[in-house]
Structure formats: C-alpha cells, structure tokens
C-alpha cells in the first residue's frame, strides 16, 4: 500500500542529519513517497522501521522476470488503463505437448523463432514456450524441454507438470534460463517448493477457485518462495474476467497479499480464431502470461497488436514515425499534405485520404505526438519547424509542383511558411476537419 | 488471511432498449455493472451483432469479405434475406452508402425504395445507417425514417451537425436513434443532452462513441467506452446510461491488415484468416469495453464473436 510522505516521515529518525543527501528527513520522506528514493539511503533507520517501510514499498503486484531475455511480468498498479499505463506487457506463450512428436515440435520451434514482427517501431514476438507434460513421463518431458531450450534459445520456458519428478528431470536443461515451474498444487506442494527454492525459479501455483488459491498462495509464500504466479483454474472467458478482476482488485484495493502476484492464463480452444478472441479478453483483463495452442502469423499479429494498444501509456500520446507516407498510388503529380505525428491525427487523416480515393503524399511531422492545434500552441508546429522538416524530408523530389497543403487550423501560418520554404514553394490551406478532406481533395483534382 | 470477494456496487444502470417487433424483436442493455461481472451485477441481455448490408454492391470491400456476398450483394433485399436466413443474423444493418455524393449520390427517393424492399424482405429488426455525409444524411435518413414507420428501426447516425432533422424524423416515426460523437466522453454526453432537449426519450438513444480498428487507435475507443460506463454506473449519470454501439466494419475492412496479400507481406500470414481475426479481435475488444450492439461484416468473425459472447455471459 502506498504511504504518504507524512506517514513515512513518522518512521524516520527526524534528525535531519543529511546523510541521505536531502536537507531534512521530511524532504527524504517525500522522495520515498514518490518512489524516487530507496530507504537504504537512511543509515540510521531502526530495524522495525526498515521492515515496516520495506513492506510498504513493495509493489502491490510483484514483478517477476522470466526467460533468458528477461521478460518481466506483473507490477501492475491499476484496474483501468485510462487511470495509468498498464506496465508490463503480458507475454504470449506457445503450448507444446511432449506427446506431439519430434517433427511437430521442430515446426513449433521454427514458428517461435520466426514470430517477431515490427509494429510501429516496436519489435514484438512470442516470448515464451510452455512445455506440457501430457505424457506424464519425466524422461520424455525432459527430452522435449531440452529440444526446445536448444532450438529456441531466446525463448523463456514454462515447465508445465504436476509431477515433481518430471520437473526435476527437465529443469536440469534450463535452470539458468529463468524458467517458470508451473503446476504446484495442494498435493505436490512440498516437492515443488523444494525444486523452486533449490533452483531459485518462479513457481506457478494452481488451485480451483479463489478461496483455495489464496490458501495455497499463503502456504507457498510461507515457505520462503517469493516469485509466485497464480492460476485459479479459470478457463472460460467468463471465469477469466471474473476471477482476474477479483484477484487484481483484491491486490490493489484491499492489499490482499496472497493475490499480489501475476496471473497465468491458459486459453486453449479448438478453433484458432476463437482462441485469439479469448486471449484478447485475457490481454485486456489482467492476465500476465497467456498460453495459446497455436501461433499462426496472422494470429500473433492480431494479439501482439492488441497488447501493444492496450499497454500504451494513455498520458503519452501514441506517436507515428516522422516521414512522408505514400497513400494509394501517389506519384509526382499527387498532392502533398502535412500534419502532426499524433497517432490519432494520423489515422483519421489517412483514413479520410483513403476514402477520397485521391492518391496523396502525407508528410507526418514529429511534434512529440501532439495534435495540430496543441502542437501549434506549443510552438512545435510552426512555420520554421515545418519548413525545416519539409526541406529535409526530400519532399521536393517527390512532387513535381512544389505545393504543400497545411491543416485549416493553422491557416495563419501559410504566409510565413511560404517565406521560410522559399525556393518556389506554395502553401495551400486545407480543411479544418479531416472529414472534409475527401471533398477538398476531389475539388482540386 | 481469508479471501473476501472485493465487490463493487453500482448506483446506475444501463437503459434496456427493444427494437423490431414480434418474436424477432431484440433487446439490448439493462446491465447494472461493468461488463461481465456477474458476481456483483446482473446482465439481462447479451451483446448482439448486426450484419451489415449496403444499398450498392460493396465494390470497396476487400475480396475476402466481398466474395461471401457475391450473388446477393447486387440486391439489398436478397442480401438482407441471405443474412437473416442463411447466416442467422438477428439484426440487419442497412448502410445507405450509395447516397454519399462521392459514391453514387443516390437520392433520398432511391434510399426509400431500398429501405422498403429490405423491410419487406426480412422480419428481423433493421438498422438504417446513412453514408456519414452530414448534409445528405439529414435528407436521406428523414425520408428513410418516414418509409420505415411502424417498424421500430434503429436510425443513425445523428451527429452534432445534423441531429435536429434526424431526431425529428425519429420521433415522428417512433424509431430508436444512434447518436455519434467523436471519441470524447464529454461530447458524447453533450449530444445526448441536445437530443433529449428536443423531446426525444433518452431511453431510445444508442450511443456510438466512434469505433476504431485494432492497431488503429482502438485503445482510445476502448478507454472512452470504459469511462462512459463508469460515468453511467459509478457516478450514476443518466445522460451516459444509453447502450453502446460499435460499428466496426468500415474501420476493420479498410486496414492494410485486412487487405494486403500474403505474397506482399509473408510475415503477416494468411490474408483470409487475418481479415477475420482482425474483425473478431476488434469486436472482442469493444465487447469487453461495454459494447451492447455491434455492426460487423464477415460471417466467420460474427460466428466467433457470438461464441465468445456465449462464454462471457
């Protein structure tokens, strides 16, 4: 639970000794409350105060790092993305059964290794592989885990078995890759905990229903395992939404420690498109790891795109890359328009140009994701900067007639922009609203 | 530490709204909690999907969805019947896109003829959508509303610039109304206020917060809808308690993802399935944000989404 600066101050020595680097204990307390400092900086803290403040400083949902590339899950702080950014994007894990046969497994590995896509400049991929011990046979399970660990060296692993002997056999092949051991339950708890502690890896725990899961979580925590991943057995979309909502609410609003951990969601369905929609529900409603049965390229494209969209920071406008976009079959006689790189501006303007069926060059200028009026008001979308962008963009080589269409809202810039551009450039004023673009563009054609 | 279910209570409730008539009438809304949380609220009516048809052949739809309707899409009445009888559509959404001045500039009289044909071809409820052209929609939707008198249709979309004419026509002919604003909680509320100030019953309004497609600003729609729902349910704002409509077809099926061939973008996989999953995941996202009524195009996506809805309620 977050403490205020004053509450923290009560536990500090109040000596204003400045050893922490701040002039007063109160100033230090304020920094602690803002999560910008660590309590370690105070050398004179009593043991009791250390424990109290240390516990309070723990994030309400623990962060856990998985896989050789260090994919972090958890550490979420809100229920709704408009309140604050969702923090750690939920990795997609491909489920591979140890009964599938070598050829199928080789294909799965190839799918994982070639899953990377570039989405507005971010490289996204299937980060994890879940190997499931369908056979129940430790030797077979270990062999497949070894095959996957070697074949997909960058992917993190989930070892899915409720048989401690299987986990024991498999973990020898991947212990250093920070795997998640999944499958601890009320029956196998002692053996699973001992493996997790021995190898210092995260432990996924399963109990049907939230009462049983909270008991199990407390027990596991009591053994000294700190990295826990929760599974309440929710498998239908309804159970997922309800259980995950209750888990996150309990963790964030009630500081209910047994549920202060990431959630793993198994969304296996017979139909891949349907599985994608269930995975989408998990992405929106609080799953931290989503295990799917297949990763066709069209499916991962949709899922990774949704995840990127949902985890976008609502306070930082989403931006598109600064460049001149070719829309339709634009050639040297097509109009050239300029606007800002706020993604919503871009999508709407682009959509309306497409609707007009008039091929265009759309110059998108980097103004740190502000809309036209805001960027103009902030002095970022003004004659000088637009002129520099257009000159440096090579626009003069794209169009035969040096004419630039600017948004109607900044019509006031047309004269000064023409001056700054020089070199025979003309500036034309476009409409204020994007929905008037089709009529405007057709009227010029 | 025993687990206590952290229930929220809600002061408000979403209006329930029925359209169409007889045993084919459809009711949406009526929930008194955030989406699909049955442990703390009731969900009397599940979200419903309408299938989109158009007054002119869908020449601008990507092949993968256009070919589904080859053979029927030259006749709106046949197209509507195909949706109802062969695809099991519970609602048919007729978009009079051909009336747009930049498309075929069909007249209001042409639109009336199409509306009348479609209404007599099917007995499921019909949603009548304009082309989105502000001035033309006012003329076309007024004429269409008159022609559909007594059928309790859904008429739309009324926007801030043209709502007066459309609201008057909806009142005179007893239709439900779609009020569309552009991705803004306050604008959505303001339009509902303006419409009710004309004497239109707020319980007959459906709000369209402006949809977007997966990958193209869907997070804005998602969060605007979540905030509208919180205003309606938590803050109990009566002007926000109208059911939500998401008209996703036009956005989804103009994305590159739904149209670019696999030969051009091998890393994006099969085009056929890509378009369907794009529409399905877009719909799933809108449903999770509180959407009550969807307008969609591909029957396979609709089937997927109906299956998802079945699992959620």
What does this structure look like?
The complex is a heterodimer of chains A (445) and B (313). Chain A has 445 residues and is α/β, with parallel strands linked by helices. Chain A is built from 17 helices and 17 strands. In chain A, strands 10-9-8-7-6-3-12-11 form an eight-stranded parallel beta sheet. Chain A has a three-stranded mixed beta sheet with strand order 13-15-14, with helices on both faces. A two-stranded antiparallel sheet of chain A has the order 1-2. In chain A, β4 and β5 (122-124) form a beta hairpin. Chain B contains ten helices and ten strands. Chain B has helices spanning 63-66, 76-86, 108-121, 134-147, 163-173, 185-197, 218-233, 249-252, 271-288, 299-312; strands at 16-19, 26-29, 48-54, 91-95, 126-129, 154-158, 176-180, 205-208, 245-247, 293-296. The model of chain B has no long low-confidence stretch (mean pLDDT 96). At the A-B interface, α8, α9, α10, α11 and α12 of A face α7, α9 and α10 of B.
